[in-house]
Every structure is written in structure tokens, then in C-alpha cells.
Design brief:
This protein is an alpha+beta fold. It has helices spanning 3-10, 104-107, 125-138, 145-154, 156-167, 173-179, 184-192, 200-206, 211-222, 226-241, 249-255, 261-272, 276-281, and strands at 13-23, 27-31, 38-46, 48-52, 59-62, 65-68, 75-79, 89-98, 114-117.
């Protein structure tokens, strides 16, 4: 499994398509702030709009643009602004739901504003095709429309992230490791074998670096030490496995590198605010705080 796919399987995201805005007359749409873990997105299928966000200059959106606000900030859209009068505008609006406390690690690695521009680039033909297919299905009266839209939207974040990694000038956190070919082997190792007692020397060898050079580069890219990130990966993986009722807490702890259930319980509670048993009983998805 490639690193991006592994990350998205470790930090699952639910996608909803809520609104389709169409018209040839300009109007304003206000979006209230969303709770932590909910990221609004807007897909400009045709026409344009202007994004208004406190503390930032207005941003012109045009056909083919895809906007995500990972922090859920309140914002406004001037639909139809910045395009010739009478130009039809068609925008799809929805939300990404980062459902568990462990997903704070993923959200924290995203910028306040993600803007992907797909126009005038054959490289993003697949993403453009998905956007138009979502538009067509959202307006269709056909059997299974809801299921089709849901499945199409579920691929949206992965494709947006892939395009953003290619376009962004600055990439933070987990994604900086993914984008840096020198450091990606260390991240891949953590994701593939979180149970291993990894050492700095082993990570450095995987990345063909000295221990000191690796540690310095890793900290600069990820904003965390390899040990900190490995711990977070372990807790995120454990949170996913806790969804599987047939797996015992002790087995899960051992599978993410803990030799005793008590040690795993302490680590999990320190990172999520709940012990594994309580986390499982409470329904698994109610956490809304990032990893500390």
C-alpha cells in the first residue's frame, strides 16, 4: 500500500455532498464555523466565486478550483463574483468529517486553506472528471443516486490531497514526510510495522542518512520527533482496531508494540483522554480533540 493510501486508511474520513449552487446572478452565501473535525469543501464546476475569510485577502475562485477549509472556519462565498455578467456558475458544496480523536494528527498536518486549481492542466484530468460526474449525479433523478454520490465523494479527498501535494509551495507535518523522498521510507516503516521497536539508527539507515542528519531533517519536516510520530501512528492504528469487537485490548496493544496491556492502556488514555475499553464502549467516533 502506498503511503497516502495507508494514511487515509489509518485516518478514515467520511464525505458528504450537501448543496449544489447554480445561477447566472451573483449572490452571497455565508457559512458558519464548523466544529473541530468538520472541513467544508467547495468545488467550482463552472463560473466562479470569491472566498471571504477573516484575516485573509479575498481569493478568486474559478472553474476547476477545489477549496477545502480543514479548520472549519466561518467564511463567505460571493457566488458568481469575478466572472463576466451572465456567466453561469455551478458550485458543489460539502463536508469532510474527520471522525475520531486520532484524526487530529491528520487535520494538524493540513493548512488552514487548501486550494487546488485544476484548470489548464491535463495532469488533473481525473479529478476534473470526478467533479463533473459528481455534478451530474447530484442533479440526476435515478435509482441509487445517493449511493453513487457517496462512493464518488469518498474518493474526493484522496484526489485533492494528491493534487495539493503537487501544487503546494509549503507542505507541513505528515505530508511533508510523504512529499520528501528522503524521509518517506521512515514514514512508510512506521505505518507498515508500528509494532517494531524502531530506533533512530534504523530509521536513518532506511533513509540513507546519518543519525544526526536524519533527526534534524525529520524534525524540520514533521515538527515532531520520530518517536512522537511513531506513538501517534500506534494510537491511531489502535483506535481503528478497537472498532473490531472481536479483537481483545491486550492483542491490540501487542500489535502496536506494547508488551503489557497496562502499558498500552496508559499510553492510549494519555493520547485520547480515554482508556481503550471506555473508548470502545463510548462508540469510538465521539472524540473531537486532536492528539496532544
Amino acid at each position: 500500500m502506498d503511503v497516502l493510501s495507508h494514511l487515509l486508511s489509518l485516518y478514515p474520513v467520511r464525505t458528504a455532498l450537501d448543496t449544489r449552487c447554480r445561477g447566472a446572478v451573483a449572490w452571497n452565501m455565508e457559512h458558519v464555523a464548523q466544529p473541530y473535525g468538520t472541513a467544508p469543501y467547495h468545488l467550482v464546476v463552472q463560473g466562479g466565486a470569491v472566498l471571504l475569510l477573516d484575516g485573509r485577502p479575498p481569493v478568486q475562485l474559478r472553474s476547476g478550483d477545489m477549496l477545502v477549509l480543514p479548520r472549519g472556519q466561518a467564511h463567505g462565498l460571493q457566488i458568481g463574483a469575478g466572472v463576466p455578467d451572465g456567466t453561469p456558475t455551478d458550485i458543489l458544496c460539502g463536508q469532510f468529517h474527520f471522525g475520531t480523536a486520532a484524526n487530529g494528527n491528520l487535520i494538524g498536518s493540513l493548512p488552514d486553506v487548501m486550494l487546488v486549481r485544476t484548470a489548464d492542466s491535463n495532469e488533473f484530468g481525473g479529478l476534473q472528471a470526478l467533479m463533473h460526474l459528481l455534478r451530474d449525479e447530484a442533479g440526476a433523478v435515478q435509482p441509487g443516486v445517493t449511493a453513487v454520490v457517496s462512493h464518488l465523494a469518498s474518493a474526493l479527498l484522496a484526489l485533492i490531497l494528491r493534487a495539493w501535494l503537487k501544487q503546494a509551495d509549503t507542505i507541513p507535518g505528515l505530508f511533508a514526510l510523504l512529499a520528501d523522498q528522503r524521509l518517506a521510507p521512515a514514514l512508510q516503516a512506521m505505518l507498515t510495522a508500528p509494532e517494531r521497536d524502531w530506533s533512530l539508527e534504523q530509521f536513518a539507515q532506511l533513509c540513507n542518512m546519518s543519525r544526526s542528519t536524519f533527526l534534524r531533517a525529520f524534525r524540520k519536516a514533521a515538527g515532531a520527533t520520530p518517536g512522537d510520530l511513531l506513538m501517534r501512528v500506534r494510537m491511531a492504528q489502535a483506535a481503528q482496531w478497537l472498532k473490531q469487537a472481536h479483537r481483545g485490548v491486550g492483542d491490540i496493544g501487542a500489535a502496536v508494540g506494547y508488551q503489557s496491556e497496562a502499558a498500552f492502556n496508559r499510553a492510549f488514555k494519555r493520547h485520547t483522554g480515554k482508556g481503550p475499553g471506555q473508548y470502545r464502549r463510548d462508540g469510538l467516533y465521539d472524540g473531537d480533540a486532536p492528539l496532544q
